[in-house]
Design a protein that fits this description.
With 144 residues, the chain is mostly helical. Helices cover 58% and strands 0% of the residues. α3 packs antiparallel against α5, α5 crosses α6 and α6 packs antiparallel against α7.
């Protein structure tokens, strides 16, 4: 078992020597960047609190108001953000488990990604729209 200090030194030094943060301490941004998509999904408040992440409705509201709303400054409704993240987490799991997507409305997921990115930063959504190959690849999909 490693000590926390040793783990942080190892993480700090794991960055490539040319990385702009090589050798610098692990900070809040590093922790957020390493959170899994599933973790974000669990942190966002659910409309139906009976199936929540274990936090009560008041705690979920406090977490949203104190911190999570800052991650999505361009959309004020946490339940909409949660819906989008739920959808994308589900399709990500289908892809990860190699499930067929033949009858899936791929463009609806493409739009959900763009909406979620717009909630974070409109420029990020615009960038995604410019680099995403989904519409072009989908246009070449053979008909079944």
């Amino acid at each position: 078992m490693t000590t926390p200090g040793l783990a942080l030194r190892n993480d700090r030094n794991a960055r490539e020597p040319g990385h702009r943060r090589h050798g610098r301490p692990v900070d809040h941004d590093d922790v957020v960047a390493h959170m899994t998509f599933g973790t974000w999904n669990k942190l966002l408040p659910r409309r139906d609190m009976r199936h929540s992440s274990g936090l009560g409705p008041q705690a979920q509201r406090e977490l949203w108001n104190a911190a999570l709303c800052k991650a999505f400054p361009n959309h004020p409704h946490p339940t909409v953000i949660k819906y989008w993240v739920d959808r994308l987490h589900a399709i990500r799991n289908r892809v990860a488990h190699l499930e067929p997507l033949c009858d899936t409305d791929v463009m609806s997921y493409h739009r959900t990604i763009a909406r979620l990115l717009r909630a974070i930063d409109p420029a990020l959504s615009s960038w995604y729209g410019g680099v995403s190959r989904i519409p072009e690849v989908l246009s070449r999909k053979p008909s079944c």
